[in-house]
Amino acid sequence: MLRNLLGRFVFGMLCVMALGAFLASCAYAQTFHVLHAFTDLDDGGLPEAGLTIDAAGNLYGTTLGTIAYDGTVFRMNNVNGGWVLNTLFTFTGSDGGLPAGRVVFGPHGSLYGTTNLFGGGTCQGYGCGVVFTLNVPASFCRSFWCQWNESVIHDFLGTPDGESPYYVDPVFDAAGNLYGTTYQGGSQDGGSVFQLANSGGEWKETILYSFAGSDGLYPKSGVILDAAGNVYGTTSSGGTFGNGSVYKLTASGGGWTLTTLYDFPNASNDGSNPIGPLLLDSAGNLYGTASADGPAGFGTVFELSPSGGGWTYTVLYSFPADGEPQGNLVMDSAGSLYGVGGGCGSYKDGCVWKLTHSGNVWSFTDLYDFTGRGDGFLPVGGPAFDTKGDLYGTTLYGGLQSAACPHGCGVVWELTP
Q1: What pLDDT, in 10s, does the model give residues 123-178?
Q2: Sheet strands (E) in 345-399
Q3: Helix (H, G, I), strand (E, B), or coil: what is residue 124?
Q4: How far apart are CA 328 and CA 383, in angstroms?
Q5: Radius of gyration of the chain (CA)
Q6: Cα–Cα dist 308/223, whole Å
Q7: Which of 91, 170, 204, 388 has its CB 3.0 to 4.6 Å from that of 70, i.e. a possible disulfide?
Q8: Does an H or E element contain 131, and which?
């Protein structure tokens, strides 16, 4: 045990020294900064999801974990101009594992999230995933590193409710009900859309819809809500043409009715396999990404605009050379869109990009190209804005290497555009 602890300490010190050397060498990067490089020690490793930012500017995120862990939830505080990471919770399997979505703040200030695997279900022997909440310890804690208390509010069973909520960021309606999706399972085995309602401290699940194939298959990201409580999302495949779909769920007669807003009919023209969530602007337009195909071959950014009782689909940008956009989009006050791609950029290790709207033209700007080394590579989760307009995000790999992370354990980054 002592040898193990000593080894972990020495490795951690080497990692800190390596990170310091990298930061010094990257002083010329101007607007890009690595805030944390994961070590797969107590801080976890492999952050696949994006970040959530609170009113004080603190960052919250998740890591998938590697050999040592089944994943973590972390917070980063800006202390005297530097960033300090605190692991809020470490998953052990029975309480969930492999969180691929971000954590979000829900009612009463608690954090909510999902895990892709584990929990009490029995899907393929790995568990079906969970929905969880984290709360600050009730008793006073003298240490800065105190872990929060986790409660599993739902264990997925595979059938009939679904399994493996993947890139799912929980969302809440005005009544405090929580919504999300499962990638697989459900009554038709094509994934599902679910609602969890809290009544007297108990969460009750309602399946709003189960996908069967022609209506879409395998929703990989979560959903969004409009002011009327309608639910919007994407399926990564299926639909009439098998390339994925965009859908809307409307409460009707005590149930929910699905309307397909768009079936991706021609992968070469429109793109295919929308994996990321949608973005809704104040005019009711929907924005999203298709992770593959399109006119330039490697994914698209699209807009769906309500028109004459239907929806008009427009490709805003088509990625050449391994763009592969997957994560969420964010929009600034001027209406510009920001996102990430897993294979774009000069080094094909991912990039952060911006689309600016002027008249009927959208102009693409490459804000940063990841090199695949200390600055990270393969950004999967989309970026987040702070109140100053700075962008924050993660990369799944890159940063510091270890035996458990031969391609690096991932980083948290900041970009001031």
Answers
A1: 878 899 999 999 988 766 655 567 899 999 999 999 999 999 999 999 999 999 99
A2: 351-358, 361-369, 384-385, 391-395
A3: helix
A4: 7
A5: 21
A6: 24
A7: 91
A8: strand 130-135
